[in-house]
Amino acid sequence: MQVRKNKETFSDPVPAHWAGKDALQSHVLNTLSLMFPAGEAFFIRSVKHFADRVKDPKMQADIKAFIGQEMQHSMAHERFNQSVAQNVGNMDWFMWLFTVPTFEWLEPFMRNYLGHEKLHQWALALTAAAENMTAGFAQSLFQPGELEKIARPDVRELYAWHAAEEMEHRDLAFDVFQQVGGDYVTRMSGMAFAYGIIAAYVALGTGYLVLKDRNFPWSTLPQQLVDLFTKENSLGRVFLEGMVDYLRPDFHPSQQPMHPEALAYLEKMAS
Ligand SMILES: [Fe+2]
Ligand SMILES: [Fe+2]
Protein backbone atom coordinates (compact mmCIF):
# COMPACT_ATOMS: atom_id res chain seq x y z
CA MET A 1 0.00 0.00 0.00
CA GLN A 2 1.31 3.45 -0.81
CA VAL A 3 0.33 7.11 -0.78
CA ARG A 4 -0.37 8.66 -4.16
CA LYS A 5 -1.19 12.27 -4.91
CA ASN A 6 -3.99 13.67 -6.99
CA LYS A 7 -3.04 17.03 -8.41
CA GLU A 8 -6.30 18.13 -10.05
CA THR A 9 -7.10 21.76 -9.27
CA PHE A 10 -10.61 21.93 -10.81
CA SER A 11 -9.81 25.48 -11.91
CA ASP A 12 -12.76 25.36 -14.31
CA PRO A 13 -15.78 25.29 -11.91
CA VAL A 14 -17.29 21.80 -11.71
CA PRO A 15 -20.94 21.80 -12.84
CA ALA A 16 -23.58 20.84 -10.27
CA HIS A 17 -24.76 17.83 -12.29
CA TRP A 18 -21.46 16.21 -13.11
CA ALA A 19 -22.35 12.56 -12.42
CA GLY A 20 -23.97 11.58 -15.68
CA LYS A 21 -27.56 12.48 -16.47
CA ASP A 22 -28.84 11.83 -12.99
CA ALA A 23 -28.99 15.13 -11.09
CA LEU A 24 -30.05 13.48 -7.83
CA GLN A 25 -27.03 11.17 -7.82
CA SER A 26 -24.79 14.21 -8.43
CA HIS A 27 -26.20 15.94 -5.37
CA VAL A 28 -25.78 12.81 -3.23
CA LEU A 29 -22.14 12.73 -4.29
CA ASN A 30 -21.76 16.50 -3.79
CA THR A 31 -22.99 16.03 -0.23
CA LEU A 32 -20.74 13.03 0.41
CA SER A 33 -17.80 15.00 -0.92
CA LEU A 34 -18.52 17.76 1.60
CA MET A 35 -18.44 15.12 4.33
CA PHE A 36 -15.22 13.41 3.25
CA PRO A 37 -12.56 15.78 4.71
CA ALA A 38 -13.91 15.86 8.28
CA GLY A 39 -15.03 12.23 8.08
CA GLU A 40 -11.65 11.03 6.89
CA ALA A 41 -9.91 13.06 9.61
CA PHE A 42 -12.08 11.16 12.10
CA PHE A 43 -11.07 7.82 10.54
CA ILE A 44 -7.41 8.81 10.94
CA ARG A 45 -7.86 9.73 14.62
CA SER A 46 -9.72 6.48 15.26
CA VAL A 47 -7.01 4.29 13.77
CA LYS A 48 -4.13 6.36 15.19
CA HIS A 49 -5.40 5.87 18.72
CA PHE A 50 -4.61 2.15 18.48
CA ALA A 51 -1.55 2.36 16.23
CA ASP A 52 1.03 1.71 18.96
CA ARG A 53 -0.73 -1.49 19.95
CA VAL A 54 -0.17 -3.03 16.55
CA LYS A 55 3.09 -4.97 16.59
CA ASP A 56 3.07 -6.48 13.10
CA PRO A 57 5.49 -4.37 10.96
CA LYS A 58 3.40 -4.89 7.79
CA MET A 59 0.28 -3.60 9.53
CA GLN A 60 2.26 -0.71 11.00
CA ALA A 61 3.33 0.28 7.50
CA ASP A 62 -0.25 -0.08 6.26
CA ILE A 63 -1.52 2.21 9.03
CA LYS A 64 0.93 4.88 7.88
CA ALA A 65 -0.17 4.45 4.27
CA PHE A 66 -3.84 4.52 5.28
CA ILE A 67 -3.33 7.82 7.11
CA GLY A 68 -1.44 9.28 4.17
CA GLN A 69 -4.08 8.17 1.68
CA GLU A 70 -6.98 9.59 3.69
CA MET A 71 -5.11 12.89 4.13
CA GLN A 72 -4.60 13.13 0.40
CA HIS A 73 -8.27 12.30 -0.25
CA SER A 74 -9.35 15.07 2.12
CA MET A 75 -7.16 17.67 0.42
CA ALA A 76 -8.33 16.72 -3.06
CA HIS A 77 -12.00 16.79 -2.02
CA GLU A 78 -11.50 20.23 -0.43
CA ARG A 79 -10.35 21.49 -3.83
CA PHE A 80 -13.26 19.77 -5.57
CA ASN A 81 -15.73 21.16 -3.02
CA GLN A 82 -14.52 24.71 -3.51
CA SER A 83 -14.87 24.35 -7.25
CA VAL A 84 -18.36 22.81 -7.29
CA ALA A 85 -19.51 25.37 -4.69
CA GLN A 86 -19.37 27.99 -7.43
CA ASN A 87 -22.30 26.18 -9.02
CA VAL A 88 -24.18 24.67 -6.08
CA GLY A 89 -23.71 27.58 -3.68
CA ASN A 90 -22.66 28.01 -0.10
CA MET A 91 -23.09 25.06 2.28
CA ASP A 92 -21.56 26.58 5.43
CA TRP A 93 -24.61 25.80 7.55
CA PHE A 94 -24.39 22.14 6.55
CA MET A 95 -20.68 22.00 7.28
CA TRP A 96 -21.31 23.47 10.72
CA LEU A 97 -24.04 20.95 11.43
CA PHE A 98 -21.95 18.06 10.21
CA THR A 99 -18.69 18.92 11.97
CA VAL A 100 -19.42 20.88 15.17
CA PRO A 101 -21.93 18.72 17.12
CA THR A 102 -20.17 15.51 16.04
CA PHE A 103 -16.43 16.13 15.93
CA GLU A 104 -16.14 19.20 18.16
CA TRP A 105 -18.65 18.33 20.87
CA LEU A 106 -19.52 14.63 20.96
CA GLU A 107 -16.15 13.15 20.00
CA PRO A 108 -13.96 15.13 22.46
CA PHE A 109 -16.56 14.49 25.17
CA MET A 110 -16.27 10.77 24.54
CA ARG A 111 -12.53 10.57 23.98
CA ASN A 112 -11.23 13.08 26.54
CA TYR A 113 -13.91 13.46 29.18
CA LEU A 114 -15.34 9.95 29.39
CA GLY A 115 -12.15 8.48 27.90
CA HIS A 116 -13.26 4.87 28.31
CA GLU A 117 -11.33 2.42 26.16
CA LYS A 118 -14.55 0.89 24.87
CA LEU A 119 -15.53 4.27 23.37
CA HIS A 120 -12.27 4.50 21.43
CA GLN A 121 -12.99 1.01 20.20
CA TRP A 122 -16.49 2.07 19.23
CA ALA A 123 -15.06 5.01 17.24
CA LEU A 124 -12.93 2.47 15.39
CA ALA A 125 -16.04 0.36 14.78
CA LEU A 126 -17.70 3.42 13.20
CA THR A 127 -14.63 3.85 11.02
CA ALA A 128 -14.56 0.20 9.95
CA ALA A 129 -18.25 0.39 9.02
CA ALA A 130 -17.84 3.65 7.10
CA GLU A 131 -14.86 2.15 5.29
CA ASN A 132 -17.05 -0.80 4.28
CA MET A 133 -19.50 1.72 2.84
CA THR A 134 -16.89 3.69 0.88
CA ALA A 135 -15.29 0.49 -0.42
CA GLY A 136 -18.71 -0.62 -1.68
CA PHE A 137 -19.25 2.70 -3.47
CA ALA A 138 -15.74 2.36 -4.85
CA GLN A 139 -16.36 -1.15 -6.14
CA SER A 140 -19.53 -0.03 -7.94
CA LEU A 141 -17.73 2.86 -9.61
CA PHE A 142 -15.37 0.43 -11.33
CA GLN A 143 -18.18 -1.63 -12.86
CA PRO A 144 -18.39 -1.42 -16.66
CA GLY A 145 -19.63 1.94 -17.91
CA GLU A 146 -19.80 3.70 -14.53
CA LEU A 147 -16.65 5.84 -14.59
CA GLU A 148 -17.42 6.82 -18.17
CA LYS A 149 -20.60 8.55 -16.95
CA ILE A 150 -18.39 11.27 -15.43
CA ALA A 151 -17.80 13.60 -18.34
CA ARG A 152 -15.17 15.84 -16.78
CA PRO A 153 -11.74 14.15 -16.93
CA ASP A 154 -10.47 15.86 -13.76
CA VAL A 155 -13.52 14.76 -11.74
CA ARG A 156 -13.28 11.25 -13.20
CA GLU A 157 -9.63 11.10 -12.10
CA LEU A 158 -10.52 12.26 -8.60
CA TYR A 159 -13.18 9.59 -8.13
CA ALA A 160 -11.21 6.79 -9.82
CA TRP A 161 -8.16 7.49 -7.64
CA HIS A 162 -10.14 7.86 -4.43
CA ALA A 163 -12.22 4.76 -5.16
CA ALA A 164 -9.22 2.61 -6.06
CA GLU A 165 -7.45 3.53 -2.82
CA GLU A 166 -10.61 2.94 -0.78
CA MET A 167 -10.59 -0.60 -2.11
CA GLU A 168 -6.88 -0.93 -1.52
CA HIS A 169 -7.15 -0.04 2.18
CA ARG A 170 -10.58 -1.53 2.85
CA ASP A 171 -9.24 -4.13 5.34
CA LEU A 172 -7.18 -1.79 7.49
CA ALA A 173 -9.62 -0.29 10.02
CA PHE A 174 -11.44 -3.63 10.27
CA ASP A 175 -8.22 -5.55 10.97
CA VAL A 176 -7.05 -3.06 13.59
CA PHE A 177 -10.49 -3.27 15.21
CA GLN A 178 -10.23 -7.05 15.40
CA GLN A 179 -6.65 -6.96 16.59
CA VAL A 180 -7.52 -4.73 19.57
CA GLY A 181 -10.30 -7.10 20.61
CA GLY A 182 -13.32 -5.53 18.92
CA ASP A 183 -16.32 -7.85 19.23
CA TYR A 184 -19.42 -8.41 17.11
CA VAL A 185 -21.74 -6.35 19.31
CA THR A 186 -19.45 -3.31 19.16
CA ARG A 187 -19.02 -3.78 15.41
CA MET A 188 -22.80 -3.88 14.94
CA SER A 189 -23.53 -0.86 17.11
CA GLY A 190 -20.76 1.03 15.28
CA MET A 191 -22.36 0.06 12.00
CA ALA A 192 -25.84 1.12 13.07
CA PHE A 193 -24.59 4.52 14.17
CA ALA A 194 -22.27 5.08 11.19
CA TYR A 195 -24.83 4.06 8.57
CA GLY A 196 -27.61 5.93 10.35
CA ILE A 197 -25.78 9.20 10.81
CA ILE A 198 -24.27 9.20 7.33
CA ALA A 199 -27.67 8.47 5.77
CA ALA A 200 -29.28 11.29 7.79
CA TYR A 201 -26.66 13.89 6.82
CA VAL A 202 -26.63 12.80 3.18
CA ALA A 203 -30.43 13.05 3.04
CA LEU A 204 -30.35 16.51 4.61
CA GLY A 205 -27.56 17.88 2.41
CA THR A 206 -29.00 16.33 -0.76
CA GLY A 207 -32.51 17.57 0.01
CA TYR A 208 -31.24 21.11 0.43
CA LEU A 209 -29.13 21.02 -2.74
CA VAL A 210 -32.08 19.70 -4.74
CA LEU A 211 -34.49 22.31 -3.38
CA LYS A 212 -32.30 25.23 -4.29
CA ASP A 213 -31.23 23.82 -7.65
CA ARG A 214 -32.89 25.96 -10.33
CA ASN A 215 -32.10 23.44 -13.05
CA PHE A 216 -33.26 20.34 -11.22
CA PRO A 217 -35.30 18.00 -13.46
CA TRP A 218 -38.32 17.73 -11.13
CA SER A 219 -40.47 15.73 -13.53
CA THR A 220 -38.07 12.79 -13.32
CA LEU A 221 -37.57 12.92 -9.54
CA PRO A 222 -39.73 9.84 -8.77
CA GLN A 223 -37.80 7.79 -11.32
CA GLN A 224 -34.47 9.13 -10.04
CA LEU A 225 -35.42 8.11 -6.50
CA VAL A 226 -36.37 4.61 -7.61
CA ASP A 227 -33.13 4.35 -9.59
CA LEU A 228 -31.09 5.53 -6.61
CA PHE A 229 -32.17 2.51 -4.59
CA THR A 230 -32.75 -0.17 -7.20
CA LYS A 231 -30.51 0.29 -10.22
CA GLU A 232 -27.38 -1.81 -10.38
CA ASN A 233 -24.37 0.09 -8.97
CA SER A 234 -26.61 2.91 -7.69
CA LEU A 235 -25.49 4.53 -4.45
CA GLY A 236 -28.59 3.65 -2.43
CA ARG A 237 -28.58 0.01 -3.46
CA VAL A 238 -24.85 -0.37 -2.81
CA PHE A 239 -25.36 1.29 0.59
CA LEU A 240 -28.08 -1.21 1.57
CA GLU A 241 -26.31 -4.26 0.15
CA GLY A 242 -23.08 -3.31 1.94
CA MET A 243 -24.96 -2.97 5.21
CA VAL A 244 -26.61 -6.39 4.90
CA ASP A 245 -23.29 -8.01 4.00
CA TYR A 246 -21.64 -6.39 7.03
CA LEU A 247 -24.14 -8.10 9.35
CA ARG A 248 -22.60 -11.52 8.80
CA PRO A 249 -20.61 -12.61 11.89
CA ASP A 250 -17.86 -14.02 9.63
CA PHE A 251 -17.70 -10.89 7.46
CA HIS A 252 -14.25 -9.71 6.39
CA PRO A 253 -13.59 -6.91 3.85
CA SER A 254 -11.14 -9.11 1.92
CA GLN A 255 -14.03 -11.41 0.94
CA GLN A 256 -14.78 -8.79 -1.70
CA PRO A 257 -11.63 -8.82 -3.84
CA MET A 258 -10.35 -5.61 -5.29
CA HIS A 259 -11.76 -4.91 -8.73
CA PRO A 260 -9.18 -5.74 -11.44
CA GLU A 261 -9.84 -2.41 -13.17
CA ALA A 262 -8.98 -0.63 -9.93
CA LEU A 263 -5.76 -2.59 -9.60
CA ALA A 264 -4.90 -1.73 -13.18
CA TYR A 265 -5.69 1.91 -12.49
CA LEU A 266 -3.31 2.04 -9.51
CA GLU A 267 -0.59 0.32 -11.52
CA LYS A 268 -1.05 2.85 -14.29
CA MET A 269 -0.75 5.67 -11.73
CA ALA A 270 2.52 4.22 -10.46
CA SER A 271 4.08 3.99 -13.88
FE1 LIG B 1 -10.78 8.21 1.49
FE1 LIG C 1 -10.99 5.07 3.42
Task: Explain what this protein looks like in three dimensions.
The chain has 271 residues and is mainly alpha-helical. The protein has one domain. It contains ten helices and no strands. It has helices at residues 23-48, 57-88, 92-114, 117-141, 153-168, 172-179, 184-211, 221-230, 235-246, 260-270. It starts with 22 loop residues before the first helix and ends with a helix. The protein binds fe (ii) ion (2 copies).
Features:
single chain; binds fe (ii) ion; 10 helices; 271 residues; mainly alpha; 70% helix
In angstroms, what is the radius of gyration? 18 Å
Strand content: under 5%
> How large is the count of helical segments?
10
Helicity level: over 70%
Structural category is mainly alpha
Uncertain spans, ≥5 residues at pLDDT below 50? none
Question: The biggest beta sheet, please?
Answer: none
C-alpha geometry: globular
Number of strands: 0
Q: Separation of termini?
A: 15 Å
Number of folding domains? 1
- Which ligands accompany this protein? fe (ii) ion
Spell out the helices and strands N to C.
Answer: HHHHHHHHHH
Give the overall average pLDDT: 94
Quick structural summary:
With 271 residues, the chain is mostly helical.
Give me the secondary-structure topology.
Layout: H1 23-48, H2 57-88, H3 92-114, H4 117-141, H5 153-168, H6 172-179, H7 184-211, H8 221-230, H9 235-246, H10 260-270
Helix pairs in contact: 1-2, 1-3, 1-4, 1-7, 2-5, 4-5, 4-6, 4-7, 4-9, 5-10
